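> example.struct
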């Protein structure tokens, strides 16, 4: 079964204007799908609440009973592994998530840079899915750093990497807004 991400699109559901797939748009969707799969597979964006469990059921066809996911903090042993190892792991994971999001954002910016290219709804929603996964990963990394800070005060390396991810998420949000606005303006122009 294919791995995917769930989000609520910021694009009006009434707009149905679609255009032909271009190579760049396909690259955006591919990059978004790869980022979502990586975030899920590496445990960065594990589900931690009832709504997320419902989302897992709908997307992956698995229930909480079928698949008991430990929190990211539990997966990496925040409470049990040596603090220095956990700090390195969180910092590395947050850095990898940031770089992955940079790649997806770069693809979105490529779509935006091509003025003659129409933006397809699939591009907008795939980018939004990647952004939601990045936000979930950020929350999980932050929670892990907070838990680890109960054991040691030397969490600066991990905290800096998580902050850098937050900064990249903010930049990606602005690009997502621009991409959604482009899509909405194309739909309005066709009416």
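> example.seq
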């Amino acid at each position: 079964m294919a791995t995917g991400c769930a989000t609520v699109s910021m694009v009006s559901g009434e707009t149905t204007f679609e255009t032909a797939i271009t190579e760049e748009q396909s690259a955006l969707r591919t990059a978004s799908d790869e980022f979502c799969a990586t975030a899920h597979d590496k445990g960065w964006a594990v589900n931690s609440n009832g709504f997320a469990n419902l989302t897992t059921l709908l997307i992956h066809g698995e229930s909480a009973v079928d698949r008991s996911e430990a929190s990211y903090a539990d997966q990496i042993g925040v409470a049990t592994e040596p603090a220095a190892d956990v700090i390195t792991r969180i910092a590395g994971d947050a850095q990898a998530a940031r770089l992955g999001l940079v790649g997806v954002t770069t693809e979105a910016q490529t779509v935006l840079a091509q003025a003659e290219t129409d933006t397809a709804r699939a591009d907008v929603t795939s980018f939004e899915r990647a952004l939601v996964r990045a936000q979930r990963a950020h929350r999980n990394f932050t929670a892990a750093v907070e838990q680890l800070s109960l054991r040691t005060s030397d969490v600066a390396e991990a905290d800096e990497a998580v902050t850098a991810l937050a900064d990249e998420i903010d930049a990606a949000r602005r690009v997502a807004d621009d991409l959604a606005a482009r899509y909405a303006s194309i739909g309005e122009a066709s009416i």
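> remarks
Residues 108 and 169 are 13 Å apart (CA to CA).
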